């Protein structure tokens, strides 16, 4: 079932109007949906529990619980508080595993999202994007879809090292191996991007259950086909349903966020 929402956040003398929609599905093959999402201004994310690992669903749900406790609703957060939520999530997910656990017995999850933050008087209000793992953050300007996040995966590292081409990723046996995850190590290293809050801005956040079934061109075509003021929950549903129609081999989760500064 799709989730829809909208809110207005005061940013000094301006207002940031935020609309969002989200949808998640277990897929055609999996028995349990290990994906979780948060769609609650000012923070939005997708967390994909590590398939084949113990408590993958509990790991992603734990991140949602920690962020909800750390981030006050409908107010700008701060970069420090978002980073604290990420590190606290890592600690909480690690507590799901025992000291004897190793390999696939260790609980873990990806985390990819954006949050409205006040970065200080000299910097101002920004969208802070953050990523650990191979869930993705895209920006959409109404015509072009751009992948903002960089996958933390074995195949991405091979592409960057020139060992394989991007076209070989989907066929490579190591395509499901991620190199960073919440809960995998004592300290988590999250990638962060700061984008000035302006308008309009649109973010697509998704688990790899979407991107392994649909190309970026497919996603752009589906986004371009919606109305300018369309129901974002319905758009998220459309993307999820398209992934299911292409096989739905994994859990599929989508969060779409639009903002305008007025």
Explain what the structure shows.
Helix content is 25%, strand content 30%. It is built from 6 helices and 11 strands. It has a 6-stranded antiparallel beta sheet with strand order 1-2-11-10-7-8. It has a 5-stranded antiparallel beta sheet with strand order 3-4-5-6-9, with helices on one face. The relative contact order is 0.22.
In short:
A hairpin with a 2-residue loop joins strand 3 and strand 4. It is built from six helices and eleven strands. Helix 1 runs antiparallel to helix 2.
- Stated plainly, the CATH topology is called Phosphatase 2c, domain 1
**Strands in their spatial order, largest beta sheet:** 1-2-11-10-7-8
> pLDDT below 50 for ≥5 consecutive residues: which ranges?
none
Q: Beta-sheet strand percentage?
A: 25-35%
Mean pLDDT: 89
Structural class: alpha+beta
Question: In whole angstroms, how far apart are the ends?
Answer: 31 Å
Helical fraction: 10-25%
Q: How many E-type strands? A: 11
Corresponding CATH architecture: 4-Layer Sandwich
Order of helices and strands: EEEEHHEEEEHEEHHHE
Radius of gyration: 18 Å
Key phrases:
262 residues, alpha+beta, Phosphatase 2c, domain 1, 6-stranded antiparallel β-sheet, 5-stranded antiparallel β-sheet, 11 strands, globular
